[in-house]
Amino acid sequence: SFDQFLSTVPTGLWLDGVQSDAVDGGTFEVLNPATGIRLTQVADATGKDALRALDSACAAGPAWAATAPRQRGEILRAAWELVTARTEDLALLMTLEMGKALAESRSEVAYGAEFLRWFSEEAVRIQGRYTTAPSGNGRILVTKAPVGPCLAITPWNFPLAMGTRKIGPALAAGCTIIVKPAEDTPLTMLLLAEIFAEAGLPAGVLSVLPASDAAAVTAPLLADSRLRKVTFTGSTRVGRLLIEQSAQQVLRTSMELGGNAPFVVFDDADVDAAVDGAMAAKMRNGGEACTAANRLIVANPVREEFTAKLTERIAALTVGPGYRDGTAIGPLINEKQRGNVAALVDDAVAAGARVRTGGAVVEGPGFFYRPTVLDNVPADARIVAEEIFGPVAAITGFDTEEQAIAAANSTEFGLAAYIYTQGLERALRVADALESGMVGVNRGVISDPAAPFGGVKASGLGSEGGTEGIEEYLDTKYIALPM
Ligand code: ADP
Which of 30, 42, 151, 153 is the best mutation target for the ligand 1 pocket, counting ligand atoms within 8 Å of the beta carbon and taking the most? Predict the structure, then answer.
């Protein structure tokens, strides 16, 4: 039983640098997706708590913005060290509330922590510029200032990293931030907040507000003129709602929304490398990633070889609770999500797709779905248009490069794309032609805290990570001076 471990994990709202009950005393349950049984309960924030957090953020804001960049960096650096030292606790907690295999949770701790280290280094490299006006009779000075109090709304699929990649740049820039974690996975962010306090972060700079009703917390904040920015990772549907609400106070927005990544294998690809890449791009995090390969678009001459090899690998994956030794694929996050995945597969099969392996839920407790390969997926099946968010590989064929590019681009989304080819010129030509914020060339995993992560089209606005990431939290100010 994990009860003893769970009893050490904070379950109150994180407000003003301490744990706190919700104003009305409410709580909600967090489930273990591997069993469907309650893990614990956490404080359930309301609109009143949201305004308490904003009061606290506004009180802490000026001193935090005035804190020396080096000092802000040192606190982020200390948080990176503490998170790294607590890898096993954070990994187990993520596996318990989110379901992924422990090895994947450990990777996420390393990846998530790296945003803290990267932005600890960026805090001291916030750059402005100076130039002489072309007329010669003025000086142009450009400075950067923190945007002010931010609201971050995060998803359940990467409970740590989707928080740190917003918190890291916000704190480095000198902003305060209120995090509304996903209702399925609030515990990881609460533990992170406690770790930040230990790292020396002043009270009020970071608040964490778990809530069973997300909008009850976010709507009053978005309507309050003291809030200056919203940063969101989640569905395009909710992103559109938030952009609409952001118009009221003309907020800065960063939106990391849905994806529908094409994974294109050309006939000149190293097929074994492509299969390795597809395993990573498709099965990492159980397929529950916005960068997950959603459509495997494979050149007809190599399609059967690729499909047979991929099917063998996917059929061999061990499904089980993430905390059991040997598990490769854990449960899906909840019954609703599993229902979505099952419905997409059933729809594709009814439309003519062929099941090479899997294709069904795992009976019994927990929200498991069998790792699946579908071949001959018709272009008009729902699974081609919608984000799967599960361990299902959907394969279609193509004949010409033009067809592959057209197929890859025929989606409202544009987050990640993957191409496998041994031709350098083809790689660059196709990468240019893809309507996508990120392109992996002969790589199945592209996320890197030092690189700008973001999408085009309905996949969102703005970049997280890289040298670009901190700009999302900085306002530009132009100071005009005489000669
Ligand atoms: P998913 O489909 O992956 O669960 P969502 O977009 O529904 O993604 O959720 C991502 C985050 O957005 C979660 O923290 C969730 O609580 C929050 N959220 C959902 N609906 C709203 C809403 N109407 N307003 C603000 N936040 C919301």
Answer: 153
pLDDT the model gives residue 1: 79
Q: CA torsion, points 49, 55, 61, 63, in degrees to nearest 10?
A: -120
Q: From the candidates 194, 256, 464, 471, give the one annotated as an active-site residue.
A: 256
Task: State the distance from the centre of ligand 1 to the C-alpha of 238, rounded, in angstroms.
Answer: 6
Alpha-carbon distance values, 441 to 266, 407, 423 (Å):
11, 18, 10
> pTM (2 decimals)?
0.98
Please provide the size of the chain in residues.
Answer: 483
The answer to whether 410 and 244 are in contact (CB under 8 A) is no
Q: How far is CA 320 from CA 33, 95, 369, 415, in A?
A: 11, 12, 10, 30
pLDDT one-digit tens code per residue, 229-285: 999 999 999 999 999 999 999 999 999 999 999 999 999 999 999 999 999 999 999
Q: Which residues line ligand 1 (CB under 6 A)?
A: 153-155, 180, 182-183, 214-215, 218, 234-235, 238, 241
| Atom number in ligand 1 closest to CA 241 | 23
122, 288, 290, 464: the active-site residue: 290
Q: Render pLDDT for 423-435 as a digit per residue (tens, 0 to 9).
A: 999 999 999 999 9
The DSSP secondary structure of 385-419, one letter per residue, reads: HS---SSEEEEEEESSHHHHHHHHH-SS--SEEEE
Compute the distance from residue 239 Cα to the ligand 1 centre, in Å: 8
- Nearest atom of ligand 1 to the alpha carbon of 333: 4
Per-residue pLDDT reduced to its tens digit, 103-146: 999 999 999 999 999 999 999 999 999 999 999 999 999 999 99
Distance CA 2, CA 321 (A): 13
ipTM over 0.90: yes
From residue 429, alpha-carbon distances to 193, 297, 417, 419, 454 in Å are 45, 17, 14, 11, 21
For ligand 1, mutation pick of 46, 235, 238 (most atoms within 8 Å of CB): 238
CA distances, 91 to each of 11, 85, 112, 269 (Å): 17, 11, 11, 36
The encoded tokens of residue 469 equal 């990431």
In this structure, which residue's CA is closest to atom 22 in ligand 1? 215
HSE at residue 303, side-chain half, CA atoms within 13 A, is: 18
Active site residue 121: no
Known active-site residue 386? no
266 and 297 in contact (C-beta within 8 Å)?
no
Q: How far is ligand 1, taken at its centre, from the CA of residue 182, in Å? A: 7
